[in-house]
Automatic annotation (TrEMBL):
Domain of life: Eukaryota
GO CC annotations on file: integrator complex
UniProt KW Flavoprotein keyword: no
UniProt keyword list: Nucleus
Highest classification ranks of the organism: Eukaryota, Metazoa, Spiralia, Lophotrochozoa, Annelida
GO BP, sorted A to Z: snRNA processing
Record family assignment: Belongs to the Integrator subunit 10 family.
Name under which the protein is recorded: Integrator complex subunit 10
Length: 679
């Protein structure tokens, strides 16, 4: 029964609005009356959106998921373009994508809608959203839930993401469009058994996927201290965990994505799984290449793949294995060059690959090289015990080296690899140039290594000068250019970092070659002994490597033999034997730098009858000039002996001085003389 005020109110507004308002007024006091008013309104005006939406709102208020779903489906069928409905559908879409408990009701509403209608609703939301990333977020849900839509809508989304990325003119492949394409959309599309896409398109997607993951994993540290940073699980290969546990990475949020969306928990695993999916679509037989536990097994698998003759399969799979081994190795050699290892508890000092101190000039790259290289023709590598996870470091390097050789062993492979590296902009990978230098050293190609190092020093401001000079010194030494080697070594000693670790021993890791290399930690405890030993060897060649001995070179050498005494005692004994046979030794720096008691006693003995009465011209210059330059008489000879005795007694009182400090002082003060001596 209508009251008079109801009639008056109805006159003031149209009938549809009046009925809706009546339903609202009764909702809190009499829900049944409210429903009756809406039922009346829907009966009288079945095509009115406001009435339908009000009924839907009441169903939501009563938490009636089934009724709300029925009404939402009706509205979507009758009024698909209404703005209010679009907003509600967007809210439901957000709720379905969210994993929180707050949106359980809206999820329930969506679940009570028939699947076919669900897909239409989600696609409609996607069409209305102009933001391609929002579309991608929604399409992940759509394509996962309705795989039959992949062929039409999945491929369309791939094209949209590629188009948007291209026209955004971005400088890096680490961007929101590529991330969604590679990490979220591509796995869904490739798992669809009925996918129909041209091979050239699939190969293009593969190139972009590898480029993204390698760029993500090998990111350099951020230069912007204000860039928000994330912590995420380690980047190391899942099968190589011995030094992964203690390290972590800090990578910036990708613009356009949320913090959680920017993190890829296990990028190597994700890349390998994606590559296997690509392989299935391209008819490749990748097998378990990336799940094998040992590098040797992976290498043998790759060789078998190459022997089957599929060039693209070999290049793509081989390049990914190569890049994994290389990046894992490079992140240990120069951990500060990668965001993943540039800070935190996993940070280690840089490493450097150098020749051992035993001269080996069997290969100086003067012979012409054949196009087809011999695989695995390298050196044995000794590693300092100060280097953690040493076996993995060597295995990663040698496997990368073998892959690199394999990919250059045939013209077809090399041509395909060159195209890929150009596409991936490998000229921006400084760690690849460093690896090529190490490869030259590994093969004894010293001239090529020197040219590469000099070029890197000029073009890469971030390259470690200490590492470069060490490698240059070892190359010059092996080529017999001792003066240049000494110059580099003295530069290194001046710039050495100081640490407390004093473990200097090395262990052989990969035997089987007369060519010997060392992998050292760039710390004083590793580098200083190496530099001193190499300088000793240079001086030894100069002092005793010719028909006539060189007293200055011999004197400089024996000063250095005091370091880590009695390590070089046998070499000192050989030098004393030569001096005794010669009968004379001149070195006026003797009393400046000789403080080892064993050496002082040996030289004192040389002056005696039993020692051979060797003529030792070792007094300081100022003392020698005080002695008249004429034929020595018995009295004057006695004066010389007294001067020698007095100076030797004073020298004995210096035997407790710090030897390392004395050696560094000697290398600094006599830097120019050392170089001139070795010319």
């Amino acid at each position: 029964n209508f009251k008079m005020e109801d009639v008056e109110m109805k006159n003031e507004e149209n009938t549809e609005t009046w009925l809706v308002n009546r339903a609202r007024q009764c909702l809190t006091t009499d829900p049944y009356a409210s429903k009756a008013w809406l039922l009346t309104a829907r009966t009288l005006f079945p095509k009115n959106f406001s009435i339908q939406f009000e009924a839907y709102g009441i169903a939501k208020a009563e938490q009636d998921t089934k009724e709300a779903a029925r009404l939402l489906e009706e509205m979507f069928t009758e009024f698909p373009d209404k703005e209010k409905l679009a907003c509600e559908l967007q809210s439901i879409s957000n709720a379905v994508q969210c994993k929180t408990q707050e949106n359980q009701f809206l999820k329930g509403v969506f679940e009570n809608i028939p699947p076919e209608m669900q897909s239409k609703m989600l696609l409609k939301i996607g069409e209305q959203n102009k933001d391609i990333i929002e579309q991608a977020r929604l399409m992940v849900l759509v394509l996962n839930t309705f795989p039959h839509l992949i062929q039409q809508h999945g491929l369309k989304l791939v094209d949209s993401l590629l188009f948007t990325e291209k026209h955004a003119h971005l400088h890096s492949s680490i961007n929101c469009y590529r991330k969604y394409l590679v990490c979220d959309i591509m796995p869904i599309i490739l798992r669809y058994q009925k996918l129909d896409a041209p091979v050239k398109h699939i190969q293009k997607w593969l190139q972009k996927s590898i480029e993204f993951y390698i760029s993500y994993i090998a990111q350099p540290p951020s230069k912007d201290i204000n860039t928000p940073m994330l912590k995420s699980p380690d980047l190391m290969s899942p099968t190589k965990t011995s030094f992964a546990a203690g390290s972590f990475k800090k990578l910036g949020i990708i613009p356009g994505l949320t913090e959680s969306e920017s993190v890829i928990a296990t990028p190597w695993n994700s890349l390998f799984e994606l590559l296997e999916l690509f392989g299935q679509k391209l008819g490749w037989n990748i097998g378990n290449l990336y799940r094998l536990k040992s590098r040797e097994a992976q290498w043998q698998h790759l060789v078998a793949m190459q022997q089957r003759g599929d060039t693209k399969e070999t290049v793509y799979c081989g390049s990914v294995l190569f890049l994994e081994c290389l990046i894992l190795h490079a992140s240990r050699v120069e951990s500060d060059q990668f965001a993943a290892t540039s800070s935190g508890p996993g940070l280690h000092p840089p490493l450097v690959l150098v020749e051992t101190c035993s001269r080996n000039t069997s290969s100086t790259s003067s012979e012409p090289k054949s196009k087809k290289m011999k695989l695995d023709a390298g050196a044995s590598i000794h590693i300092s015990k100060t280097v953690p996870a040493s076996l993995e470091v060597v295995q990663n390097f040698t496997t990368a080296f073998r892959c690199w050789q394999l990919l250059h062993s045939k013209e077809s492979l090399e041509k395909e690899l060159t195209k890929l590296l150009h596409y991936w902009k490998s000229e921006n990978w400084p760690w690849l140039s460093n690896f090529e230098t190490d490869c030259h050293l590994y093969q004894g190609e010293y001239r090529e290594a020197i040219a590469k190092l000099e070029n890197i020093k000029k073009s890469n401001a971030n390259f470690s000068v200490l590492r470069a000079d060490l490698q240059l010194a070892s190359c010059y030494y092996c080529m017999g250019t001792y003066s240049k080697a000494c110059e580099m070594l003295l530069n290194v000693i001046e710039s050495l970092p100081h640490v407390t670790d004093s473990n200097q021993s090395q262990e052989e890791i990969s035997p089987g070659s007369s060519h010997q290399l060392q992998l050292l930690s760039c710390t004083e405890s590793d580098i200083l002994p190496y530099c001193i030993k190499l300088i000793i060897n240079c001086l030894k060649e100069k002092a005793f490597g010719h028909i006539e001995t060189d007293d200055t070179a011999a004197g400089h050498m024996m000063v250095l033999l005091q370091y880590d005494w009695p390590k070089y005692e046998s070499l000192f004994s050989s030098a004393i034997k030569v001096i005794k046979e010669k009968g004379i030794f001149s070195y006026n720096l003797f009393f400046n730098y000789f403080i080892n008691i064993d050496m002082l006693e040996e030289f004192t003995w040389l002056k005696t009858q039993d020692g051979g009465k060797v003529n030792l011209n070792v007094l300081p210059v100022n003392v020698q000039t005080a002695i008249p330059q004429r034929t020595v008489t018995r009295g004057q000879q006695k004066g010389v002996k007294e001067d020698f005795k007095i100076h030797m007694e004073k020298q004995v009182r210096r035997t407790n001085e710090n030897v390392e400090q004395l050696i560094r002082q000697f290398l600094t003060e006599q830097k120019q003389n050392l170089r001139l001596c070795l010319i």
